[in-house]
Amino acid sequence: MIYVMSDIHGMYDKYIEMMDLIDLKETDTLYILGDIIDRGVNSMKILQDMMKRSNVFGIFGNHELMMADCFNIIMQEITNEFLDSFDEEKLMKLSDWMNNGAFQTIQEFKKLSKEEQKDIIEYLMEFTAYEEVEVKGRYYLLVHAGLGDFSEEKSLDEYDVNDFVWKRPDWDIPYFTDPNKFVVVGHTPTLGINGKPEIFYKNNFIAIDCGACFENGTLACLCLDTMEEFYV
């Protein structure tokens, strides 16, 4: 079975509850479509659990990309030499990340040993920008946010990583004319699409960010083989 999940945002307890609920077996595969970190209080615990599972694969979200942009900052001790090299570009990247809920993630990261920190960084850099899977004759593009500046004539290699992690689809305009091509995304909470913490389907888009980090949201998971939905 192939499962997809997205936008866990540090909600470790929900993540573990979901893993128990779907009963992920060694022969199954789980793709997590980014935004595993930030906002919640246990982002590192989720990443460390994922690292132990050979059948769980991460896809970059905008939050992982913001963290990657700040690796050189959070790995260093604050010294006079470091502050002297702290230019405006670094400050802007850190500010953007902090404004998107990075404080808890940085606090967690700093509590790890240097070896654990290096392991986290190496693991995050193994994430892909997107994945393509075929299940029962249906083609699924798995991507965090969507395809910015979309054209059906463009190959996926022609897109920039920011197109994958920031650009939201227009739900009224399908990407592909092929009825067997689907795009599975996170990034946009379904609470903001139709007001419901449920997986949203329209024009071959499947939106699975159901607002796990919000009080009235849920963590969702979808099995692509059966289209069974799971919520915690």
TrEMBL record:
SUPFAM superfamilies: Metallo-dependent phosphatases. Residues 2-191 form the Calcineurin-like phosphoesterase domain. It comes from the Bacteria. This is Fructose-bisphosphatase class III.
